[in-house]
Specification:
The complex is a heterotrimer of chains A (about 325), B (about 270) and C (about 280). Chain A folds into two domains: about 1-95 and about 175-315, P-loop containing nucleotide triphosphate hydrolases (Rossmann fold, 3-Layer(aba) Sandwich); about 100-175, no CATH class. Chain A has twelve helices and twelve strands. Chain A has helices spanning about 45-55, 85-90, 100-105, 110-125, 130-140, 145-150, 160-175, 190-205, 220-225, 240-245, 250-265, 300; strands spanning about 1-15, 20-30, 35-40, 60-70, 75-80, 95-100, 180, 210-215, 225-230, 235-240, 305-310, 315. In chain A, the strands form two sheets. Chain A has an eight-stranded mixed β-sheet with strand order 6-7-8-3-9-10-12-11, sandwiched between helices. Chain B has a six-stranded mixed β-sheet with strand order 6-7-8-3-9-10, with helices on both faces. Chain B is an alpha/beta fold. Chain B contains ten helices and ten strands. The relative contact order of chain B is 0.16. Helix content of chain C is about 70%, strand content about 0%. Chain C is built from eleven helices and no strands. Classes of the chains: A alpha/beta (about 325), B alpha/beta (about 270), C mainly alpha (about 280). Chains in contact: A-B, B-C.
């Protein structure tokens, strides 16, 4: 069953007087219990996609298209046209979010345990003592070895990995169906990162969570997700099942990213993609990737590529997609 | 790299370095003594690239700050080209400093927000005997890190992350340094940008005969940049050796865990912080 | 010059404040040259006239033209405030820098001095000394300066302590620059924004204090005039001779509002990220 459907989502930033297209024609659907990884470089619009889904775009950002979310009681909500009060019911309770700067997303003057207790007592309408007990349990669930100490600690007393876990516990306190994690591991060291991803994996299975994982680490996406969405400068370049993309990436950009990740693992020297990511304020004409694309022809400069379905659940926006095997 | 480096002379020598921080008591907590570095010795030869790899909080950054003259060691010696830098007087230290240049992990914050790129680099050129006109020198330095000269009049907040990082490197190069201390040079970069930066650093090393002291937690990128690697945990080196040997035949369990962590394909049951 | 105009126009409150203060300054400086009356020449036959064509703001007890006195008073009031602010700000910067860079016991002594000075009943001291008969404009400036450098010193010290730990200062140290250069070229410009904003706000505070002292009859002495002196001349019969106090009061309020608006505007503009658009 599809939990989240995004159709033709476009986001325009008109706050600085002229309109800048931040996201263009994004479409995907996410089934309950699945994981979607959104990959792309800095400035590709990954965070904006998360914010649109949770209905938290900053003022001056205009959203068009459709985002349909199916709540646990089977009511459908269109995030874009929903009332503020409906969105408040969905945020936290239905869709949880973990931010990249976990330590900064926690309230600096409230002890970690109390922050979780507050959410629990409001969300589940239980008394303080019961909520405290549950909060301790939640800290244990996210794999913190000293839940009692963390419960009484202030956010600044935690290491990066611990703060990230507390933020996760806080997001889980609302018992969401869908969890959006915006680059949760990018500031963690490699061992902590691996622990964290394992934890996410377990929690996902235990709580039947649906997960959107935003990352710029291709390896992380490949090893973790069921589906992958590749963003480049606000455009959806490729979308498909992880296995299919891993085996046969169709878009030259996806291919280049996978090659770098593979080379790093096989201890070769990787070949970087030439040039820098094109700016959103002044995007190139046609396909936004064409200035860096080895396969670019005249048509790529003139026209925007259409979305081509390569197989079931695997689509690409490119005039010259790689042959599938 | 093997034959060449054994013949060349030692640039940086660190002997039994110990760094202890006194955490002053606040209203709530008692005084604490933190042993950040607990007896570390190593040396870096001219043209060599040495990496210290470990998790955050293992003490690797303290070593770097100490070698830069910012954090006073509680015991041990840090000699650069034969001079113990913590025994030099202020003037001698100031003259030695240009030769050891840092490129900090937080590259955004290491550029003065009120200076243009041009000003940032000319400040570094001030300490050098100038044989060229300054604007030529700035353009040439920007070119050597792969940046267009048009960027000169911009302020740091108008630059992308990759550009800021390159300005940091250009400023370091302006001083004709012998040793660059690179703190997590690629970890906050995108994959492709990171690879490009590694290529740049490797070619600069050749062109300018630089030595690198790398500080990182990511073995898969460190491997592409270093000749020798030391694995650090809780203030001491637990294993060290030539980069490829160490990665292919790690003897310590912790090293194995670090190598394993850079490979995410086998997500397993370990998840304890 | 064009750039300065651009910057002023880019922020509404800075724009409004600059125009207000600009008008007051031009009015005070050029007015006395154009006016047929001298601020101190008495004409008892024309005493206490209400506003008319020949005396737009009326005359006081000695038949002096109030408009001419307010124009002259503007020079005195603004002059005292600006000069005292300059001395206070320079003192504050120097003491703040010494405190931050020398540190140790000197830092502790200087900061305790700041605490003591802030706790001093400054109006009382000023009244005491001036009340003993030593009143002059120079003395007033000196007093205002002595009792207002502390805020600036505190701001400079705390900002420098923060900025000194920033990586761009570490980088400047690693370059091998001299300490003097790091302080004045690398650190101070980053503190300057805050200093300028609080200096502008200090000007308006000092205008108010100077007016209060003069109102109490202990500041600028007649026949010389500051706005506070003029204000006090109307207090004998505030209803019957309303024009004397009302017009001088309006100028005091306008100047304070003007400087506060400029301060607010500068606060927005002096963020380095702002320069992008201008």
């Amino acid at each position: 069953m599809s939990l989240l459907t995004v159709e033709n989502l476009s986001v325009i930033n008109s706050s600085s007087g002229r309109s800048i297209s931040i996201l263009k024609n994004i479409g995907f659907s996410l089934n309950s219990g699945e994981t979607l990884a959104v990959i792309g470089e800095t400035g590709s619009g990954k965070s904006m996609l998360c914010k649109s889904i949770i209905g938290l775009l900053p003022p001056g950002f205009l959203c068009s298209g459709n985002i349909h979310y199916t709540s646990s009681d089977n009511t459908k909500t269109s995030i874009i046209s929903a009332e503020k009060s409906d969105l408040l019911n969905i945020r936290g309770r239905e869709i949880g979010m973990v931010f990249q700067e976990a330590a900064a997303s926690l309230n600096p003057v409230v002890r970690c345990g109390n922050q979780i207790t507050d959410v629990l007592s409001v969300e589940s309408k239980i008394d303080k003592n019961k909520a405290k007990k549950q909060a301790r349990k939640l800290l244990e669930t996210v794999g913190l070895s000293e839940p009692e100490r963390i419960f009484h600690a202030y956010p600044h007393q935690l290491s990066g990995g611990m703060a990230q876990r507390v933020a996760l516990a806080l997001a889980l306190a609302g018992k969401p169906q869908l969890l959006i994690a915006d680059e949760p591991s990018s500031s963690l060291d490699s061992i902590t990162k691996k622990y964290y991803l394992n934890l996410l994996n377990r929690l996902k299975q235990e709580n039947n969570l649906t997960l959107i994982l935003v990352t710029h680490d291709v390896d992380e996406a490949l090893s973790f997700a069921d589906n992958i969405l590749v963003l480049y400068a606000g455009c959806m370049t490729e979308y498909g099942r992880t296995g299919a993309i891993k085996k046969a990436p169709a878009h030259p950009y996806t291919k280049a990213l996978l090659n770098i990740a593979r080379a790093l693992k096989e201890k070769d020297f990787p070949t970087p993609i030439p040039g820098e990511i094109s700016s959103l304020t002044n995007p190139p004409s046609g396909c936004r990737f064409h200035p860096r694309c080895p396969k670019a022809q005249d048509i790529c400069r003139l026209k925007e590529p259409p979305s081509i379905d390569i197989s079931d659940n695997h689509s690409v926006r490119c005039f010259f997609p790689a042959e599938t095997i | 790299m093997q034959a060449g480096t054994t013949a060349s002379k030692t640039l940086l020598q660190i002997q039994d370095l110990r760094i202890v921080y006194q955490q002053k008591n606040t209203f709530f907590t008692a005084d604490q003594t933190v042993h950040a570095v607990n007896g570390v010795s190593f040396s870096i030869r001219q043209g060599e690239s040495f990496a210290i790899v470990g998790r955050s909080g293992c003490g690797k950054t303290s070593i770097a700050m100490s070698a830069l003259g910012f954090v006073k060691p509680s015991a041990g010696a840090i000699s650069f080209m034969g001079e113990n830098i913590w025994q030099l007087n202020r003037k001698d230290l100031r003259q030695l400093r240009p030769l050891i240049q840092p490129v900090f992990q937080d590259y955004g914050n290491s550029l003065n927000p009120r200076m243009t790129v041009n000003k940032i680099i000319t400040e570094a050129l001030r300490t050098q005997p100038n044989d060229r006109t300054q604007s030529d020198a700035v353009i040439q330095l920007l070119d050597s890190v792969g940046l267009d000269s048009g960027i000169r009049l911009r302020f740091p907040h108008q630059l992308s992350g990759g550009q800021k990082q390159r300005i940091n490197i250009a400023r370091a190069l302006a001083l004709n340094p012998k040793l660059l201390i690179l703190d997590e040079p690629v970890s906050s970069q995108d994959l492709s940008a990171g690879v490009k930066l590694i290529e740049l650093l490797n070619s600069l090393k050749q062109t300018y005969e630089l030595s690198y002291l790398l500080i990182s937690h990511n073995l898969s990128t460190v491997r592409l940049l270093s000749d020798r690697i030391a694995i650090m945990k809780d203030g001491v080196f637990i294993e060290r050796g030539p980069a490829e040997t160490l990665l292919q035949h790690p003897s310590d369990n912790y090293t194995k865990e670090l190598i394993d962590a850079s490979n995410l394909t086998n997500l397993s049951k370990t998840e304890q912080a | 010059m064009k750039r300065i105009v651009n910057i002023i126009c880019s922020d509404k409150s800075l724009y409004a404040g600059s125009i207000l203060i600009g008008i007051i300054i031009i009015f005070s400086l050029t007015g006395p040259l154009l006016s047929p009356y001298n601020y101190s020449s008495q004409n008892l036959s024309e005493a206490l006239q209400s506003p008319s064509i020949s005396h737009p703001l009326g005359t006081d007890y000695y038949g002096r033209d109030v408009l001419a006195r307010i124009m002259h008073g503007g020079q005195i009031t603004l002059g005292i405030a600006l000069l005292a602010t300059t001395i206070a700000v320079l003192t504050g910067i120097i003491i703040g820098l010494i405190s931050a860079f020398v540190g140790g016991w000197l830092d502790r002594i200087l900061m305790r001095l700041v605490d003591i000075m802030l706790g001093f009943p400054k109006l009382f001291i000023i009244l005491l000394v001036i009340g003993m008969g030593y009143s002059s404009i120079g003395l007033i400036i000196l007093f205002l300066a002595i009792f207002s450098w502390m805020e600036i010193a505190r701001i400079v010290r705390s900002e420098v302590l923060v900025i000194r730990e920033q990586l761009y200062i570490k980088s400047a140290e690693a370059i091998g620059l001299r300490r003097r250069r790091i302080i004045f070229i690398h650190i101070l410009p980053n503190v300057m924004g805050t200093i300028i904003v609080s200096s502008v706000l200090l000007i308006s505070t000092l205008i108010l204090i100077e007016s209060s002292i003069s109102f109490l009859g202990l500041g600028v002495q007649p026949p010389n005039a500051s706005w506070g002196t003029i204000l006090t001349e109307g207090r004998i019969d505030p209803i019957g001779t309303w024009w004397i106090s009302v017009f001088s009061g309006i100028f005091i309020i306008a100047a304070i509002i003007g400087f506060n608006l400029i301060g607010d505007g500068l606060r927005n503009i002096l963020d380095p990220k702002f320069t992008e658009n201008t």
